[in-house]
Amino acid sequence: MTKLQLANQVMIEHPLFGLLITLACFQCANVLYNRLGRLPVAYPLVVAALLVVAILELTGLSYRRYLESVETLNLLLGTVTVALAVPLYESLRRLRTMFFPVMFTVACSAVSAVFIVMVLAEAVGLEEVIIKSLATKSVTTPIALSITEDIGGKATLAVLFILITGLFAPLFVPILLKIFPAKNDAVTGIAIGVSAHAIGTAKALEISRECGAFSALAMSLMGLMTAFLLPLIL
Amino acid sequence: MLVGVIGLIAFQLAGEWLASYFKLPLPGSVCGMFLLLVFLLLRGGVSDSLLSASNKLFAFLPMLLIPITVGIYTWFPYLASSWFEIGGVLVVSFFITYFIAFFMMNKLSS
Predict the structure, then answer these.
(1) Among positive and negative, which fits the CA dihedral B91, B96, B98, B99?
(2) Which domain holds residue B57?
(3) Are B47 and B75 part of one and the same domain?
C-alpha cells in the first residue's frame, strides 16, 4: 500500500467520514429539491440516500462501518419521537373535539392495513416469512421491530418494507392531495400517519405543524393498536 | 435551546427506563413521548427552549433517516426474484390504507 492509499484509507474509515457524507449529501439533496420546485420524486431523503450509496460504492466503505459511524443520528431519531409530544400537546384542543373520529379511524386503519397487505401478499404467492414481515409495514420502525419477531417475521425484512412504505408518502401524497383535497390539515395528518409512519410524519411536518402533530398522533396510536392486535390475529 | 435538548434526552432516557422496568411492549422513545406529553399537560405550556429544540429536530428528521434508508440497497440481491410482487403489494396496500383513513376522517371530522 502506498502512502497515498494509506492516507485515503485512514480518512474513509474515520468515524467523521460517515457523518460528513450524510450531512453533505443531505445538503446537496435539499438544494436540488428546492431548485426543482419541490418535485416529489426528488424528495431529499431519497436523493441523499442514493448519493450516500454511490459514495459507499466508490470508496468501498461497508454499510456496517458506515452505520456504526452515524450511530448518533439513529439515537436522535428516538429523541425526535419524544419531541413529537410538543406538536401533539399543541393540537390537543383540536383533538378533544375529534377524539372519536380519530380513534375510530385509526382503529379501522390498523385492522385493515394488516389484513389487506397479508391477503394481497397471499394472493400473489409470496413466501410465508415475507408475508409475516409485511404485516407491520405501516407501523413506525421501533414498535414494528418488537412485534415482527414475535409473529414469525424477519426484522430486517420488516425494516425494508416499512422504509419503502414510508417513502410512498413524499412520493404520492402531494399528488393525492391535489386530486382529493382534505377538509383540514388534521385529516391529511391522520391519513399520512396511519399509512406512512415516521417518514410520512417528516413529510406532514413540511405541510404544517398541525398536520405533523396529527400524523405523529396517528403514527403512535397505529403502532400501539397494531402491537396489541397483531399477536391476537395471528 | 440547550435546556430543551437536555429535557428531550432526559425524557427519552426516562422512557427507556420505564419501558425496560415494566417490560412494556413499547419502545422507550414512545414512552418518553407520553411522559413529556403528561409533563406538558401538568405544566400547562411549552417553554421557548423546548419549542425551538423540537423545531430544530423536526427540520432535520429526513436527515436522521438517511442511514437506515441507505440500508435498503444491501437487501436488493436477496429479494431480486419477488421484487415485482412485493412492490405491487406495498403500493396497493399503501393506497388502500391511505384512502380508508383519509375518507373516514374527511367524513367524520367537523
Answers:
(1) positive
(2) 1-64
(3) no
Residue A204, judged by CB atoms within 10 A of its CB (0-12, 13-18, 19+), counts as buried
Quickly count: other Cβ atoms within 10 Å of residue A16's Cβ. 9
Say yes or no for a CB contact (<8 Å) between B72 and A163.
yes
A27-74 residue pLDDT tens: 999 999 999 988 777 888 889 999 999 999 999 999 999 999 998 888
Q: Would you call A208 an interface residue with chain B, using a CB distance cutoff of 8 Å?
A: no
User: What's the total number of domains in chain B?
Assistant: 2
Assess B19–A contact: CB distance below 8 Å, yes or no. Answer: no
pLDDT tens, residue by residue, A59-113: 999 999 999 999 888 888 888 888 888 887 887 777 788 888 999 999 999 999 8
ipTM metric: 0.86
* B-interface mutation test, from A71, A82, A105, A168, most B Cβ less than 10 A away: A82
Co-location of B52 and B13 in the same domain: yes
Torsion angle (degrees, nearest 10) of CA A52, A54, A60, A62:
40
Distance of CA B27 to the CA centre of its chain: 11
Question: Please, which pLDDT band fits residue A141 given cuts at 50, 70 and 90?
Answer: confident
Among candidate residues B25, B82, B63, B95, the one with its CA nearest the CA of residue A196: B95
* C-alpha to C-alpha distance for B91 and A28, rounded to whole angstroms: 28
B77 reaches A (C-beta below 8 A): no
Q: Which A residues 155-184 touch B at CB under 8 Å?
A: 156-157, 159-161, 163-165, 167-168, 172-173, 176, 180, 182-184
Q: Establish if B95 touches chain A: CB-CB under 8 angstroms.
A: yes
Contact A101 B108 (CB under 8 A): yes
Query: Contact, A197 vs A169, CB < 8 A?
Result: no
